[in-house]
Write a structure and sequence with these properties.
By secondary structure, the protein is an alpha+beta fold. Among the domains are: 34-125, Carboxypeptidase-like, regulatory domain (Immunoglobulin-like, Sandwich), CATH 2.60.40; 146-179, no CATH class. It has helices at 2-27, 146-150; strands at residues 34-41, 52-57, 63-67, 73-79, 82-89, 95-97, 101-103, 108-114, 123-125. The strands form 2 sheets. Strands 2, 3, 5, 6, 7 and 9 form a 6-stranded mixed β-sheet that branches.
Amino acid sequence: MLLQQLFLQFLQILLLTLLALLTPTALGQTASTGALLGQVTDPTGKGVPQASIAAKSEDAAVSRSTVSDGEGRFVLPLLPPGIYRLEVTKEGFSNTQSEPVQVPVTESIRVSIPIKLAGITQSVEVQGDAVPLQGDTVALGRVVDAPMIQALPLAARNFTQIVDLSPGGLDGCEQCRGIGLWR
Protein backbone atom coordinates (compact mmCIF):
# COMPACT_ATOMS: atom_id res chain seq x y z
CA MET A 1 0.00 0.00 0.00
CA LEU A 2 2.78 2.44 0.94
CA LEU A 3 4.74 1.43 -2.15
CA GLN A 4 1.69 2.10 -4.31
CA GLN A 5 1.27 5.63 -2.84
CA LEU A 6 4.93 6.42 -3.42
CA PHE A 7 4.66 5.23 -7.01
CA LEU A 8 1.58 7.46 -7.63
CA GLN A 9 3.38 10.48 -6.11
CA PHE A 10 6.38 9.78 -8.34
CA LEU A 11 4.13 9.67 -11.45
CA GLN A 12 2.45 12.95 -10.45
CA ILE A 13 5.81 14.68 -10.00
CA LEU A 14 7.07 13.27 -13.30
CA LEU A 15 3.95 14.47 -15.14
CA LEU A 16 4.18 17.97 -13.66
CA THR A 17 7.88 18.17 -14.52
CA LEU A 18 7.22 17.17 -18.15
CA LEU A 19 4.42 19.71 -18.45
CA ALA A 20 6.63 22.45 -17.00
CA LEU A 21 9.43 21.63 -19.44
CA LEU A 22 7.21 21.46 -22.54
CA THR A 23 5.02 24.52 -21.88
CA PRO A 24 7.63 27.22 -22.68
CA THR A 25 8.39 25.51 -25.98
CA ALA A 26 4.74 25.51 -27.02
CA LEU A 27 4.24 29.15 -26.03
CA GLY A 28 7.37 30.27 -27.89
CA GLN A 29 6.17 29.07 -31.27
CA THR A 30 5.19 31.75 -33.80
CA ALA A 31 4.20 31.68 -37.42
CA SER A 32 7.29 32.56 -39.44
CA THR A 33 6.17 31.49 -42.89
CA GLY A 34 3.75 32.55 -45.58
CA ALA A 35 2.02 30.80 -48.45
CA LEU A 36 1.22 31.17 -52.13
CA LEU A 37 -2.07 29.89 -53.45
CA GLY A 38 -4.06 30.37 -56.58
CA GLN A 39 -5.30 28.86 -59.80
CA VAL A 40 -3.81 28.03 -63.19
CA THR A 41 -6.28 28.84 -65.98
CA ASP A 42 -6.40 28.24 -69.73
CA PRO A 43 -7.38 30.93 -72.32
CA THR A 44 -11.09 30.20 -71.72
CA GLY A 45 -10.74 30.81 -67.97
CA LYS A 46 -11.15 27.18 -66.92
CA GLY A 47 -8.77 25.59 -64.43
CA VAL A 48 -5.88 23.52 -65.78
CA PRO A 49 -5.56 20.24 -63.86
CA GLN A 50 -2.20 18.56 -63.18
CA ALA A 51 -0.12 21.63 -64.07
CA SER A 52 3.31 21.70 -62.42
CA ILE A 53 3.95 24.84 -60.37
CA ALA A 54 7.45 25.63 -59.09
CA ALA A 55 8.19 28.54 -56.73
CA LYS A 56 11.78 29.72 -56.56
CA SER A 57 13.03 32.49 -54.31
CA GLU A 58 14.91 35.33 -55.96
CA ASP A 59 18.12 34.33 -54.18
CA ALA A 60 17.50 30.66 -55.13
CA ALA A 61 17.75 29.60 -51.48
CA VAL A 62 14.24 28.13 -51.47
CA SER A 63 12.53 26.08 -54.15
CA ARG A 64 9.16 24.37 -53.74
CA SER A 65 6.88 22.69 -56.25
CA THR A 66 3.39 21.27 -56.42
CA VAL A 67 0.78 20.09 -58.93
CA SER A 68 -2.60 21.75 -59.46
CA ASP A 69 -5.77 19.88 -58.55
CA GLY A 70 -8.67 18.98 -60.86
CA GLU A 71 -9.82 22.62 -61.00
CA GLY A 72 -6.35 24.11 -61.49
CA ARG A 73 -5.97 25.26 -57.87
CA PHE A 74 -2.68 24.99 -56.01
CA VAL A 75 -1.20 25.76 -52.60
CA LEU A 76 2.47 26.25 -51.71
CA PRO A 77 2.48 26.46 -47.89
CA LEU A 78 5.27 27.09 -45.39
CA LEU A 79 7.33 29.42 -47.58
CA PRO A 80 9.91 31.51 -45.74
CA PRO A 81 9.27 35.24 -46.27
CA GLY A 82 10.81 36.55 -49.45
CA ILE A 83 10.32 37.26 -53.14
CA TYR A 84 9.34 34.31 -55.34
CA ARG A 85 8.81 33.63 -59.04
CA LEU A 86 6.33 30.98 -60.11
CA GLU A 87 6.91 28.83 -63.18
CA VAL A 88 4.03 26.78 -64.60
CA THR A 89 4.51 23.90 -67.01
CA LYS A 90 1.94 21.59 -68.56
CA GLU A 91 2.10 19.47 -71.68
CA GLY A 92 0.20 21.16 -74.51
CA PHE A 93 0.62 24.62 -72.96
CA SER A 94 3.36 27.25 -73.11
CA ASN A 95 5.70 27.50 -70.14
CA THR A 96 4.68 30.53 -68.08
CA GLN A 97 6.68 32.51 -65.54
CA SER A 98 5.12 35.04 -63.15
CA GLU A 99 6.38 38.41 -62.04
CA PRO A 100 8.12 38.40 -58.65
CA VAL A 101 5.66 37.91 -55.78
CA GLN A 102 6.40 39.12 -52.23
CA VAL A 103 5.46 36.58 -49.53
CA PRO A 104 5.28 38.26 -46.10
CA VAL A 105 5.16 36.50 -42.74
CA THR A 106 1.79 34.88 -41.83
CA GLU A 107 0.08 35.86 -45.08
CA SER A 108 -1.33 33.77 -47.90
CA ILE A 109 -0.90 35.53 -51.22
CA ARG A 110 -3.35 34.61 -53.99
CA VAL A 111 -1.95 34.43 -57.52
CA SER A 112 -3.88 33.73 -60.72
CA ILE A 113 -1.75 32.34 -63.54
CA PRO A 114 -3.22 32.23 -67.05
CA ILE A 115 -1.37 29.97 -69.48
CA LYS A 116 -1.67 29.79 -73.27
CA LEU A 117 -1.98 26.81 -75.56
CA ALA A 118 1.29 25.80 -77.15
CA GLY A 119 1.35 26.20 -80.88
CA ILE A 120 4.90 27.34 -81.18
CA THR A 121 7.45 26.67 -78.47
CA GLN A 122 7.63 29.87 -76.49
CA SER A 123 7.93 31.18 -72.97
CA VAL A 124 5.41 33.67 -71.61
CA GLU A 125 6.09 36.05 -68.74
CA VAL A 126 3.02 37.16 -66.80
CA GLN A 127 2.92 40.84 -65.78
CA GLY A 128 0.78 41.84 -62.82
CA ASP A 129 0.59 42.42 -59.12
CA ALA A 130 -0.42 39.91 -56.50
CA VAL A 131 -3.46 41.11 -54.60
CA PRO A 132 -2.72 40.73 -50.87
CA LEU A 133 -6.19 39.59 -49.81
CA GLN A 134 -6.62 37.38 -46.78
CA GLY A 135 -9.75 35.44 -47.70
CA ASP A 136 -8.33 32.04 -46.86
CA THR A 137 -7.58 32.40 -43.17
CA VAL A 138 -8.59 34.41 -40.13
CA ALA A 139 -5.00 34.71 -38.92
CA LEU A 140 -3.85 38.26 -38.32
CA GLY A 141 -0.30 39.39 -38.84
CA ARG A 142 1.64 42.40 -39.97
CA VAL A 143 5.26 43.29 -40.55
CA VAL A 144 6.19 46.71 -39.19
CA ASP A 145 9.42 47.73 -40.87
CA ALA A 146 11.82 50.60 -40.17
CA PRO A 147 10.39 53.11 -42.73
CA MET A 148 6.89 52.59 -41.29
CA ILE A 149 8.16 53.20 -37.75
CA GLN A 150 10.04 56.34 -38.78
CA ALA A 151 6.95 57.76 -40.53
CA LEU A 152 4.72 57.32 -37.47
CA PRO A 153 3.32 60.46 -35.86
CA LEU A 154 3.85 59.26 -32.29
CA ALA A 155 2.71 62.22 -30.17
CA ALA A 156 4.12 60.85 -26.93
CA ARG A 157 7.13 59.20 -28.65
CA ASN A 158 6.06 55.96 -26.96
CA PHE A 159 7.24 52.96 -28.99
CA THR A 160 4.46 50.77 -27.52
CA GLN A 161 1.96 52.67 -29.68
CA ILE A 162 3.24 50.59 -32.60
CA VAL A 163 1.14 47.71 -31.25
CA ASP A 164 -1.97 49.62 -32.32
CA LEU A 165 -0.89 49.38 -35.98
CA SER A 166 -1.49 45.64 -36.10
CA PRO A 167 -5.02 44.27 -36.57
CA GLY A 168 -6.50 43.36 -33.21
CA GLY A 169 -3.59 44.95 -31.34
CA LEU A 170 -4.31 46.89 -28.15
CA ASP A 171 -1.59 47.92 -25.76
CA GLY A 172 -3.84 49.09 -22.91
CA CYS A 173 -2.92 52.75 -23.36
CA GLU A 174 -3.86 54.66 -20.19
CA GLN A 175 -3.44 58.14 -21.74
CA CYS A 176 -5.10 57.48 -25.11
CA ARG A 177 -7.33 60.52 -24.86
CA GLY A 178 -4.29 62.78 -24.57
CA ILE A 179 -2.73 61.50 -27.79
CA GLY A 180 -5.89 61.58 -29.89
CA LEU A 181 -7.16 58.03 -29.43
CA TRP A 182 -10.73 57.98 -28.04
CA ARG A 183 -11.47 54.71 -26.32
